[in-house]
Specification:
Elements: E1 4-11, H1 18-21, E2 28-37, E3 40-48, H2 52-61, E4 65-73, E5 79-85, H3 90-96, E6 101-107, E7 111-118, H4 121-133, E8 139-147, H5 158-169, H6 181-188, H7 192-210, E9 221-223
Antiparallel strand pairs: 1-7, 1-8, 2-3, 2-6, 3-5, 4-5, 6-7, 8-9
Length: about 220
């Protein structure tokens, strides 16, 4: 049996923290670890893009946040929290109850992006079907086979490739830049936040494939 990796997106309004996310234009969540017990999901989350006072006021008013504890802060202003999501965490619970392990998760104003490892393709299918039966929207982007060795690859999705090529053609990577992220987002017909996240994922894939020795920096090699 071969373990599989799945990457997918979930609309922000279908998961915990949606009230907080809608209050800020530039807020970003980067989940380091997720622990689930009973009906409570306990993530460790780096938050950036907003001041601590405003952020914690939003946490206090967000019904999906059962509790939170500030752990540490980086020089760039990002803050690590230990949290409990007491509501709207059904999607996460369904995704991990079949043995899924969260490798990476980020949240923005439009959507959450997840990368999970499942022990078998069948366990992934059962988890996905359970989400569908309960009406939980999960937009699968890519599925990989996990394998050992050092020959794994991480390719761009078709949409990522088109975005990176257009960014290059319009001079986004030039010095000085000939176009801004906002102008590129308008050209692609998407939001500033979505385009920023898409470019970051594409850059990560390219770095992991062509720069990081041995493939992916998270310790897993992938094969389509």
């Amino acid at each position: 049996m071969t373990a599989v990796i799945v990457e997918f997106e979930i609309p922000s309004d279908r998961i915990a923290m949606s009230d907080t996310l809608t209050q800020f234009d530039e807020i970003e969540f980067d989940v380091q670890e997720i622990v689930a017990h009973d009906d409570v999901v306990s993530p460790f989350v780096w938050v950036s893009g907003v001041g601590v006072d405003r952020l914690e006021s939003a946490f206090d008013a967000d019904p999906s946040v059962g509790s939170y504890r500030r752990l540490t802060e980086k020089s760039d202003g990002s803050v690590l929290y230990e949290m409990e999501w007491s509501r709207d965490a059904d999607v996460v619970l369904r995704l991990i109850e079949e043995g899924g392990a969260v490798l990476h998760a980020t949240g923005g104003t439009d959507c959450w992006f997840f990368r999970l490892l499942y022990p078998t393709h069948e366990s992934l299918s059962r988890s996905y079907e359970e989400c569908r039966r309960e009406g939980l929207a999960v937009d699968v982007i890519r599925v990989y086979r996990a394998k050992g060795g050092d020959e794994g690859t991480s390719l761009l999705t078709e949409n990522q490739q088109k975005t990176v090529i257009e960014a290059f053609d319009l001079g986004y990577y030039d010095i000085p830049r000939r176009t801004t992220l906002g102008e590129l987002a308008e050209s692609r017909g998407t939001s500033h936040q979505s385009l920023s996240e898409q470019l970051r994922r594409a850059h990560r894939n390219l770095i992991e494939t062509h720069v990081i020795e041995g493939g992916r920096s998270d310790g897993h090699d992938f094969e389509e």
